Amino acid sequence: MHKAQDPQFAERVRASFARQQAMSLIGATMPVIEAGYTEVHLPHKAEVTQQHGFIHGGVVGMIADSAAGYAASTLTPHDTGVLTVEYKLNLVAPAEGQLLIAEGSVIRYGRTLIVTKADVYAVNAGRKTLCAVMQQTIMALHGKKEKPQVSE
């Protein structure tokens, strides 16, 4: 069990996720935010599928990266940003279903490097099937808050 350093972590993470235009573009949401754990949900949309009708592997990687990265962010101080420096994604089954759920969690929290993981499930007719696993390294950016969103 990990302990959050910022009592307002959920609000901070929710606001940061809302600024990610890439997540908005694909229709992803983050309904679960807990210390050391987040979930990113992505409903099936034809616009994010590949030629066989499955959700594209790149999109699966996007939601895994965000879920695990935000899991790390839940544990950081309020003035610390996070940045992915590496991840390894294994696609273990087609991302086929009405919904994808990326469950991100922290494996090890360190001052500079945070190791995380994400399991991505495809939900089809109420049944969850593991479709991807990811391990990730996050760099903590102490004293570097996120830039405010710029409007066009």
Question: How would you characterize this protein structure?
Answer:
This protein has helices spanning 9-19, 21-26, 57-73, and strands at 29-34, 37-43, 80-91, 99-109, 113-124, 127-142. It is of the alpha+beta class and 152 residues long. The chain has a single domain, classed as Thiol Ester Dehydrase, Chain A. A 6-stranded antiparallel sheet has the order 1-2-4-5-6-3. The model has no long low-confidence stretch (mean pLDDT 94).
What labels describe this entry?
22% helix, 152 residues, 6-stranded antiparallel beta sheet, 6 strands, alpha+beta, Thiol Ester Dehydrase, Chain A
What is the fold's blueprint, element by element?
Layout (H helix, E strand, L loop, with lengths): L8 H11 L1 H6 L2 E6 L2 E7 L13 H17 L6 E12 L7 E11 L3 E12 L2 E16 L10
Antiparallel strand pairs: 1-2, 2-4, 3-6, 4-5, 5-6
Helix content, binned percent: 10-25%
Second rung of CATH, namely the architecture: Roll
- CATH H level: which superfamily? Hotdog Thioesterase
What spatial order of strands do you see in the largest sheet?
1-2-4-5-6-3
Using the coordinates shown, work out and report the CATH topology: Thiol Ester Dehydrase, Chain A
Number of strands: 6
In percent terms, what proportion of residues is strand?
A: 35-45%
Mean pLDDT: 94
> Which structural class is indicated by helix and strand composition?
alpha+beta
Broad shape: globular
Strand count, sense and barrel status of the largest sheet are: 6 strands, antiparallel
| Helix-strand string | HHEEHEEEE
Distance between the termini: 41 Å
CATH first level: Alpha Beta
Number of helices: 3
Low-confidence stretches: none
Q: What is the C-alpha radius of gyration, as a whole number of Å? A: 15 Å
Number of domains: 1
